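User: quick one - fold this with 2'-monophosphoadenosine-5'-diphosphate bound?
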Amino acid sequence: MKVFCILSDHRAFKSWSPAVHTAVLARVGIPGLYVPFCVAADMLGDAVRGIRALGIAGANVTVPYKEAIIPFLDGLSPGAESIGAVNTVVRSGDVLSGHNTDADGFLESLRLRGFEPRGTRALVFGTGGATRAVLYALTDAGAAHVMVAGRDPQKTVSLARRFGALPVTMDDPALRSLKADLLVNTTSVSTRSESIAMADLVGDLSVEACRLVVDINYGRADNFWQAFAESRGIAFVDGGPMLACQARLSFALWTGVEVDAAVFMSFLEDR
Ligand code: ATR
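Assistant: Sure. Structure tokens for the protein plus 2'-monophosphoadenosine-5'-diphosphate:
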């Protein structure tokens, strides 16, 4: 019997991962289950020691602990090291290593939509934790120009420097006429009620070259990124496929079993 878990704060109980991973374990015939743990910030080290003590076979980590968990782990994959964040903990005996499947999950989700990032121009909105995985993924996959748009000039410039991207602030008028094949929203804002100013800004973008708009958030009604894409005949994808792809990659790291993203997607849609 294998037990997996997700570490987060109260948001652990809202995560779709326990239901979906438990369903996939059953589907592939691995006896096991996946449980959510709400961990207080000052107990994170104890929680990681608990992974060893309780014999937990593998874990996900999500907001707000993707960075905070790093000092408690025994090592990091090169990707997690470059991104500076961990979403997957792999156990080998008592050794716990941190990985990041968000970046490769993002790339897989683009390729599932027939978008190959090599040689393309990408404009990424946001300066948060998820932005780092997306910027790392795009530069690693050989995108020719990656631009990062943030509202805080300092954060935007330092993030751009770290990942070799071009910074642009959201109040820069030049943003409206930038040319990009791919537009990615990694901010937490998808609906008009979350930020009228940002919805208006996106509505004004003139991205004639754009072939795909991605909003990495999932399940938002009244999504202005989607409205923007659809009104211009551009393909749109929300964060569902990225979630499914990062989950399938974590599952493969823990179990050695490759499960098609479509299986994760179908359990995600059933929820
Ligand atoms: P995560 O780590 O999951 O990416 P986060 O760190 O909370 O989440 O990041 C949220 C992102 O959305 C940040 O880039 C945030 O911008 P700031 O860093 O300037 O706070 C961005 N964001 C949130 N509300 C926003 C708004 N109204 N307009 C523009 N960006 C916004």
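One thing worth noting: Residues 240-255 form the longest helix (16 residues).
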